[in-house]
From TrEMBL:
Coiled coil: none annotated. It comes from Acetobacter pasteurianus NBRC 3188. Belongs to the OprB family. InterPro entries: Carb-sel_porin_OprB (IPR007049), OprB_Porin (IPR052932), OprB_sf (IPR038673). It comes from the Bacteria. Residues 44-65 have a biased composition (Polar residues). GO terms for molecular function: porin activity. GO terms for biological process: carbohydrate transport. Pfam families: OprB (PF04966). Residues 40-74 are annotated as: Disordered. This is Uncharacterized protein. PANTHER family: PORIN B.
Length: 291
């Protein structure tokens, strides 16, 4: 969902990285300001980075073999991704809680931020001749390119219960909301939220069980393109996730994960073009080893 589907190759994040600089300013233990500037397009592929450029199918962003023999490409020709964020820490906790006698309150972190990408992005409404993209009047199928893209977001991560200061057990909730323009983005609005229980069982102090839910809304530009081209109009995608993070050894964490997705991509057709892709059940297993 947003912002990954709205940026070149999902933006500079794992497994793709970009040259970047980050500034962090913390005037007090409650407030933190952060700013970052990064190359916005790790693979450097501009011609087929978004589904709207190729009838709904974008190129694999992890494939960099088209650039040179070793696959390395330090792209600096698309644009800059500028990110800013303000954080507020509610009830900051001491680094060492073992000697605390007075309850400092339940900790939480609240974030408000956004980004601006200086690059050009394909328009979901008009082609390069100013005609409605995907309509009968569209004879090129090539979208118009618009300068700049943006998104704003808010994040809440709040502990809501713990039995005592020394107890490893706690319950926390989290939520994230994002919003951006609909003329050059596939997803214009998304919400993710959930709840985590730390130390769910006796003797499992470092384990965590979590339940999450999210929804993504297809942008007005995407829906208009669907109507113009006669495709099913994309709407909302909903997903539910249940996960358990288990510390098997002090240096080894395993995390089984189950996800269920309703209306993948908001309702698109399968490879036959005659029926919608069905709901999806996804099973995964993460493993993290610390050396």
């Amino acid at each position: 969902m947003a912002p990954s589907v709205n940026l070149y190759a999902g933006g500079p994040s794992w497994p793709l990285s970009s040259p970047a600089i980050r500034i962090r300013y913390r005037p007090s233990d409650k407030f933190t300001f952060m700013f970052a500037a990064a190359d916005d397009n790790p693979p450097g592929n501009r011609n087929n980075s978004f589904g709207i450029q190729n009838g709904g199918n974008s190129a694999d962003p992890t494939n960099q073999n088209t650039h040179d023999e070793d696959g390395a490409n330090f792209n600096m020709g698309t644009g800059a991704l500028l990110i800013t964020e303000l954080q507020y820490a509610l009830n900051p906790q001491p680094d060492d809680m073992s000697h605390v006698t007075k309850d400092p309150g339940l900790p939480g972190i609240y974030k408000l931020g956004g980004y601006y990408d200086t690059a050009k992005f394909p328009d979901y409404r008009y082609n390069n001749q100013g005609k409605a993209l995907g309509s009968a009047a569209d004879t090129t199928g090539i979208p118009r390119w618009d300068r700049g893209n943006w998104m704003v977001y808010g994040i809440i991560d709040q502990m809501i219960w713990r039995p005592s200061l020394q107890s490893p057990q706690s319950v926390g909730i989290f939520a994230r909301a994002t919003g951006n323009g609909g003329d050059r983005n596939m997803i214009s609005f998304a919400i993710d939220a959930g709840i985590n229980l730390k130390a769910p069982f006796k003797g499992r102090d470092n384990d965590t069980v979590g339940l999450g839910w999210g929804i993504g809304r297809a942008s007005s530009g995407q829906r208009r393109y669907d109507r113009n081209s006669g495709a099913p109009v994309q709407g909302n995608e909903n997903h539910l996730e249940l996960t358990y993070q288990a510390q098997v050894m002090p240096w080894w964490v395993m995390q089984p994960d189950f996800q269920y997705v309703w209306h993948p991509s908001g309702g698109v057709t399968d490879w036959t073009g005659n029926r919608l892709v069905g709901n999806e059940a996804i099973f995964g297993l993460h493993s993290n080893i610390t050396f």
